[in-house]
Amino acid sequence: MNIGQAASLSQLPPKTIRYYEEIELINPARAENGYRDYSDGDVHRLRFLQRARGLGFSITECRLLLSLYEDKDRASHDVKAMALDKISEIDRKINELNSLKHTLSTLAEHCNGDNKPDCPIIEDLARGSQEPRGGP
Amino acid sequence: MNIGQAASLSQLPPKTIRYYEEIELINPARAENGYRDYSDGDVHRLRFLQRARGLGFSITECRLLLSLYEDKDRASHDVKAMALDKISEIDRKINELNSLKHTLSTLAEHCNGDNKPDCPIIEDLARGSQEPRGGP
DNA sequence: CTTGAAGTTCCAGTAACTGGAGCCATTTAG
DNA sequence: CTAAATGGCTCCAGTTACTGGAACTTCAAG
Description:
2 copies of one chain form a homodimer.
Chain A lengths: L2 H8 L3 H9 L6 E2 L5 E2 L2 H15 L4 H12 L5 H35 L10 H7 L9
Antiparallel strand pairs in A: 1-2
Helix pairs in contact in A: 1-3, 4-5, 5-6
The first copy, chain A, binds a DNA duplex through helix 2.
């Protein structure tokens, strides 16, 4: 399929898709006319990238995540370790999103009438899922 | 407090904190010696920015999120609408993270022995929280 | 065969940092 | 008190991850 269809399936702009090719995240075939020709697998990859990038993973991290699925040469226990590592990162993000959501929900409720919020909420906000102090 | 302490409390590098000042996300006081002087409130803001940026919200979105708490001039129902809007965005992100986590967990389990994954999982991966086809 | 949408490359610009040079202030060791 | 280390300051250049625009080709419809 052409880049346009790949774009609408993956929810990524064509520009970004071409950029991902430039930095070797994908390598679509070329048709005789010179147009890029995306397979279903390519679209899977792109869709994955779209999701992961939107969740705050860097390109480097995306590359790692992709390699978890596709690098058949890597030893199995490495894959597992990396997967578990990413899972705890994801758990952390989920926790942070939940706390952010809680903060916003409380705010929304408190804004129910027409009174302005004076917000003890901002305390909660800044606390978040903070570590107990004392560095890494 | 100085920028160093603000940095370690907010988990942001000093460079980034100065940059946030440049783009007017914070406005710390200055001590007599010219050093930036951060209040607890400033640190709250920074901590919030650190969390929100890490979760994939843009600077523009962070500005909006911050305004939800602090813009006392905005009408209350606007605040509520924006908060609800951001909440659904957050829910979407949480769903995506859960699906990503599920994918990785399955992978980790399947990689338990020393057999390489041949991955029907990649299907699941690319499906994610996709819309039912037919575009906006 | 023309018109328009969609593709191509290339180059420049933007967003959000990040690193480094060069200089002043503060703390700490001798 | 002086010297060195540490941390702050500004400014400017570089990086990452796109994004927009110009100039050209290709394809599908009328």
